[in-house]
Amino acid sequence: MISKKMNEVFNGQVNAELYSSYLYLSMSTWFSEKSLSGFASWMRAQAQEELFHSIKIIDYILERGGSIQLDTIEKPEGDWSSALEVIQETADHEAKVTGLINGLVDVALEERDHAANIFLQWFVAEQVEEESTVGEVVEKLKMIGDASAGMFHMDMEMGKRVFTPPAE
Ligand code: FEO
Questions:
Q1: For the chain, which residues make up each domain, given as ranges?
Q2: Is the dihedral of CA 113, 118, 123, 124 positive or negative?
Q3: Does ligand 1 lie within 6 Å of residue 20's CB atom?
Q4: Residue 165 has what DSSP assignment?
Q5: Would the CB of 97 count as within 6 Å of ligand 1?
Q6: Is the CB of 93 under 6 A from ligand 1?
């Protein structure tokens, strides 16, 4: 059985993952409106991935005999000045999420909840991958600058990403 404290912080993380999904969906629609359909599709896959993360945590809470408390999801931002600004915000957001996951690991260690600690290691590794992927997109966009040919090519590259739920 999961402790009250551990259950509470996992519930908080469900909300954080749902907010991430909501934010990325908002970014995806912004890209669509700017006719950057590759970026829009990449962001939609990102939103789907975050929804998957929240459900993964929900399933874990249930498996451990805990209870789910779904809370209000904060309204996401909806306007940005450039693709670089959007992706930079994504990178900053992912860094924040990494901090949250590390906080959950701290609680698992305090509570001596070894099962939760093992479960959270998947998210620790996932954050390393996410920060690296988004960081690379930021760097490429900085390289491209105002070059429209580069942006056209990048949009096509971004459109190749397809969301496939990771194996459990
Ligand atoms: Fe659920 Fe992008 O971390």
A1: 4-158
A2: positive
A3: yes
A4: P
A5: yes
A6: no
112: DSSP letter: T
From the options 1.10.10.410, 1.20.1260.10, 3.30.420.40, 1.10.8.420, give the CATH code of 4-158: 1.20.1260.10
**What is the residue-level pLDDT of the chain in tens, covering all 168 positions?**
899 999 999 999 999 999 999 999 999 999 999 999 999 999 999 999 999 999 999 999 999 999 999 999 999 999 999 999 999 999 999 999 999 999 999 999 999 999 999 999 999 999 999 999 999 999 999 999 999 999 999 999 999 998 888 766
The pTM of the whole model exceeds 0.90? yes
How far is 77 from 2, CA to CA, in rounded Å? 34
CA atoms within 13 A on the CB side of 156: 5
C-alpha of residue 112 to centroid of ligand 1, in Å: 25
